[in-house]
Amino acid sequence: MKDVSIFDIFLEFLIIGATSFGGVVPYLRGSLVTKRHWIDDKEFVEMLSISQSLPGLNATNMAILVGEKLRGALGSIAGIIGICLPGAVLMYVVGHYYRIHGDHIWITAALKGVAAAAVGLILSTVVGLSKKSLAGKFDFVFMALTVIAVNRLHLGVPRTLVGVGLLAILFHYPRKDQKESAAQ
Amino acid sequence: MNQIPALVRVFAYLSLLTVGGGMAAFPEMKILTVEVHKWLTFPQLIHLYSVGQMAPGPNMMMIVSIGEWAGGMLGAIVVLVAFFGPTAVLAFVVARGWKKLEKWPWRTSIQQGLAPVSIGLLLAGCFTMAKGAITGVETGAIAVGVLLILLQYKVNPALLVVGGAVVGVLSFMPK
């Protein structure tokens, strides 16, 4: 692993940042595990689970974790700048033109469709994640409590996160038969 | 009026709310950027977020557009650093310490406990957005259509968002 240069890290994440249409995770795996062999599949899954438990986007957290593993702090910085740069430049330009031309009839019509499609996309992510990481009916209760706290009671995300989060973590307190009870 | 300090405050704060994904911060982002600071309108926020789903890379790059509107090129850069800096530092620190925590029994508890909460935050963000995006039968049908297609087939989601644009033009263009 000593042979990976800072520039290599930057370049690889720049390519991921420029080509990962429709979600970064599969592109990360293809690039870091299959193509470059910088990490193996087991490390990838573990880093992804850390990325998901921390605040921050999966894509940028993965860039930090992989960069750190390869070349420490400079590797992390190279990774996160690389993965953010193409999308950031694109959205800078898009945002600029949207502000000028956003009220054209056909753009408004297209954007209505785009926004509706995005709602469907987020819902499919919710379904996918629920199937993968919710264990037992109480997890659905915690999920519902979170939605109610934010959307109905308007408690705000921070208070909800601390309140329901603590409750859920305490519910999953460490016990010896945790694997078995989680599998039910 | 100089918006830079406000941009830093707002986006550094939003950064820490993105547990499980950028959408977790969406309800708070709406309150702060639309209602408090009036950098853009709610429909504009929804449009930028949705268009951002077609862009490659991390899916919250639309924050750059908000930064540019409120503070020009400097605003865009400031927003990027404020939004990605705090969580990047946190991930870096955790990356260093995580191995040591491997034997710590609460590590699994935290992961298992945060999973339903982060999915709930995603759903809450989705509902906030749906209030502005789903305005009638047509938009509802597009959302449900995309959901069903994604659950049933392996399609690149970005293509479906582009498809949404096409359906949008066909349904909402004045005849």
How is the secondary structure organized here?
The complex is a heterodimer of chains A (184) and B (175).
Chain A: H1 6-19, H2 25-35, H3 41-53, H4 58-101, H5 105-133, H6 137-152, H7 157-171, H8 178-183
Helix pairs in contact in A: 1-2, 1-4, 3-4, 6-7
Chain B: H1 4-15, H2 26-36, H3 42-52, H4 63-97, H5 106-133, H6 137-152, H7 157-172
User: pLDDT below 50 for ≥5 consecutive residues: which ranges of chain B?
Assistant: none
Overall geometry of chain B:
globular
How far apart the termini of chain A lie comes to 41 Å
Structural class of chain A: mainly alpha
Identify the overall geometry of chain A. Answer: flat
Q: Between the first and last Cα atoms of chain B, what is the distance in angstroms?
A: 42 Å
Q: Helix segment count of chain B?
A: 7
Instruction: Give the helix level of chain A as a range of percent.
Output: over 70%
Number of strands of chain B: 0
Overall mean pLDDT of chain A: 88
| Arithmetic mean pLDDT of chain B | 91
The largest β sheet of chain A comes out as:
none
Largest interface: A-B, 100 and 106 residues
Oligomeric state: heterodimer
Elements of chain B, N to C (H/E): HHHHHHH
Could you give a quick summary of the protein structure above?
The complex is a heterodimer of chains A (184) and B (175). With 184 residues, chain A is an all-alpha fold.
Structural commentary:
- The complex is a heterodimer of chains A (184) and B (175).
- Chain A is mainly α and 184 residues long.
- Chain A folds into two domains: 101 residues, no CATH class; 51 residues.
- Helix content of chain A is 80%, strand content 0%.
- Chain A has eight helices and no strands.
- In chain A, helix 1 runs antiparallel to helix 2 and helix 6 runs antiparallel to helix 7.
- The C terminus of chain A is likely disordered.
- Chain B has 175 residues and is an all-alpha fold.
- Chain B folds into two domains: 130 residues, no CATH class; 41 residues.
- Helix content of chain B is 74%, strand content 0%.
- At the A-B interface, helix 1, helix 3, helix 4, helix 5 and helix 6 of A face helix 3, helix 4, helix 5, helix 6 and helix 7 of B.
